[in-house]
Amino acid sequence: MDVYARPANNSALKEKPADSKDENEILPPDHLNGVKMEMDGHLNKEFHQEVFLGKEMEEFEEDSEPRKNRKKLMVIFSKVDINNDKKIGAKEMQRWIMEKTDEHFQEAVEENKMHFRAVDPDGDGHVSWDEYKIKFLASKGFNEKEIAEKIKNNEELKIDEETQEVLDNLKDRWYQADNPPPDLLLNEEEFLSFLHPEHSRGMLKFMVKEIIRDLDQDGDKKLTLSEFISLPVGTVENQQAQDIDDDWVKDRRKEFEEVIDANHDGIVTMEELEEYMDPMNEYNALNEAKQMIAVADENQNHHLELEEILKYSEYFTGSKLMDYARNVHEEF
């Protein structure tokens, strides 16, 4: 099997330096909440927690008190269990996933309002490409007034190759987000599509094209399994690194074969990847619900009881609850 170089997983770098705040405000995020794949083509490791916890996700931290986390999880269980039969079925979980996904969308809309104001200083309700370009370069350390003056006078900008490449990619996305008639001016709604393409059908297609472009090795605009699971060349230095790489390949193989490749023909098309990436796809949400139930369904009744969710809390919340069995009876 051929092995090719893969892009670095920038989305794994959760901690950002304080001075990158402005840059984060105007750059499209690599990590999209409630979407199964990152913008750089890596799998979203927190997807299950994001679509199960929604805004409550931040409350389930490793150093949180297990007893408090149990109570929070019990409250969530009761909310998902809308028919109050003390168990969660696939339809109930599907409804909950769609609700949490919509919650992520509303959060993106609210954040977009703030970010739009940051790049629309004159408050005219539109942002030109040049206005955005100035703010972006200022966030990269360039002098904002000097850049603005040079752009105004059509003077050449001395920009390093890496920054220029990012700018070129952003301009492509800017064009895509600019609804007809194209004027290179984005209003607040178009700017939302620019920052969060997962919530715009046209931009979703563009995002999928970008991901396939990054992973596609033979230029046929489709993905084979070997292309999807390709590893960075020469990065394995010890057994621990080898184990991480092995797990990475295993996870991607499973996702490719069982989820993304809908017709199981060994090829993922743009259409299949688009369906997979669409956060508001109800069919995907139902499949996801069934998978989530299967992970913890120890008694094989195709439902989740509270004890099962508590036992597999790390999968649902990222937080491991110790002595779950004894404590759940104490809570009752």
TrEMBL record:
Name of the featured protein: 45 kDa calcium-binding protein
Location within or outside the cell: Golgi apparatus lumen
PANTHER family: 45 KDA CALCIUM-BINDING PROTEIN (PTHR10827:SF98), RETICULOCALBIN (PTHR10827)
The organism's place on the tree of life at top rank: Eukaryota
Domain EF-hand: 68-103, 107-142, 203-238, 248-283
A molecular function GO annotation: calcium ion binding
GO cellular component terms given for this protein: endoplasmic reticulum; Golgi lumen
Species of provenance: Mesitornis unicolor (brown roatelo)
Entries under CDD domains matching the protein: EFh_CREC_cab45
